[in-house]
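Dear colleague,

Following up on Tuesday's group meeting, I ran the structure prediction for the two-component complex that the binding team flagged. I've pasted the input sequences exactly as they went in, so you can double-check that nothing got truncated or mislabelled along the way. The structure tokens for the whole assembly follow below. Feel free to forward this to whoever is handling the docking comparison.

Inputs:
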Amino acid sequence: MRIAKLQPRIVIPYVILAALILSTALLQPNTVSLDWLGIKTNDILPLALATAGQTLVLLTGGIDLSIGGVISLTNSLEATRMTSGAGGIVAFTLGMLALGALLGALNGILIVQVRLQPFIATLITWSIYGGLALWILPTDRGNVPQGFINVLLAHPGGIPLSLVLLVVLGMFWRWLRRTPLGKAILALGSNAKSAWLSGIDVDRVRLAVYALSGFFAATAGIYRTAQVASGSPTAGNNFILLSVSAAVIGGTSLAGGKGSLIGSIIGVCVLKMIGDLLVFSGVSSYWAALFQGVLLIVIIAVVSVGEIVRRRREGLS
Amino acid sequence: MTGMIRAFTRSNRAILLSYGCALLIFAVITAITPGFASGRHIRVLLIDASVVGLIAFGQTLVIITGGIDVSIPWTVNCAATFLTLLTAGHDHALASVIPLVLAGTTFVGLLNGLGIAYLDIPPIIMTLGMNSVLLGGLLGVTGGRPGGQAPPAVQWVATGSVGFIPVIVLVWAAVTLAATVVLRKTAFGRQLYFIGNNENVARFSGVDVRSRKLIVYCLSGLTAGVGGILLAGRIGMSYLGMGDPFLFQSVIVVVLGGASILGGSGQYVGTVAGAFILTIVKGLLPVFNIPTSAQQVVYGVVLFVAVVLTSLL
């Protein structure tokens, strides 16, 4: 067990993050503080939530492109349709969470019942959910109740709520991993056939995973609404690529069966720190997408080549 | 003779069905909307169908091999923007700019192909990353400013006519003919279906799977470049985001044309029918007062119906 924990796949993200924090602390010695931590966790949380859902899907060997649509849709709805009363805010936000889970479950149904491949099922729903967001809110704008923003960006007892939620997310994984569902998710990703043969209801696990991914995407959309205090019908599109990148940096395998939500959170931190370093070194934000794309391709290529080399070596021995 | 016809119908059921759908939708709309079938409007529909059809050429081959290319939107956008920027709206530099732009987009396809065929990166991930690279690169190079006017010669190819037939339709017809011959009659064409049906079997049967995939993604980059240039000519200029609709559209027209998204089947003639259906349906939205912002919902639904129908055939 101890040796298994020291696999490079698990250790490397922490090493990279430590190096990035160290270099930030050296380059900008005055920035690293508790306030900074609060700003960073606020910044990280939406992507961490979206990545949590994406990770669960990747663990089963699938992919969820529709989170882009779900985030855009919940963000657009929250920014245009929410009333400012406390009861209204709570009811509406809970409704958004339910909507996210429902939209996610719909992906699951397309994959399980209609037997579509995950990428085509979620490409279809990405188009539909994103289209609905554009229908509701054709351009970036919105009117977000101040009370809603104040609650989600609060610092109870000096600790940012976003940090608390990140810790909760980590604890959720530690709990989920030990439940039958968590074990089934990992088993399904390792080998779908043997998972099925060992009595796991594979279809139900898939459905649950996509519903969870939709739910997490909705939480990301909701939190983004508070963070930006506005809505955008295309806000979610960027999350698709970044969530996959973060999960892979955090040690999740695209083939499924290997990875963890905590690794993914570390992956999100790494992505955001790299982004900050680019801004610090004066690179125009226009180039951001270029670096994000290159980073994704390079990481996957490295993992892939490692896999090819490992397979060759095993084949020879 | 009747036997031959029957055999032809059987092996091309999906494609014939697509053309049937296109005709049926067209007939119904013509009946309820006066002016839809006017010569002017049909001409516009033909030009729009040619643009999306040419952009989806590479996507057809990619999907036949069981892959997907979602880097088409910003490849199209890069081609259109660099065409307008480098020519500054004049014809005299075209002879050097067009080969340069097409070499660039083919290189994008080459990188996709290298990642997918030689590094075993899943196509959806590789091309999603590439799309982001192109988006960021183009935003960075242009600083977010739109490109400018398309040269008159390109505008003529995209919207002009020889006699009463649009030039672009002649180009498209030639491409369709060539594609059909290559896919049906050459070893290369047959190998693409082989790869799409079962990659391992293809490999063990001696097909050079990697080089075939590499060529297919290069072609996808090339035709996205051609499509981008013609799109700039069609609109008369370039702007950022002009390629975005083609992410969904390029996949939809291929699947509407009867190709299985799992690979191993499909014809470019089918994609042509798919381009007709998509263009007619797009022309239909204003008739039913559906706002342009909701187009994407319709695309999703159409894609769903097409994927399900093709899997049933």
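Chain A touches chain B at residues 63, 65, 110, 114-117, 119-120, 123-128, 130-132, 134-135, 138, 233, 240-241, 244, 254, 284, 286-294, 296-297, 300-301, 304-305, 307-308 (CB under 8 Å).

Cheers,
M.
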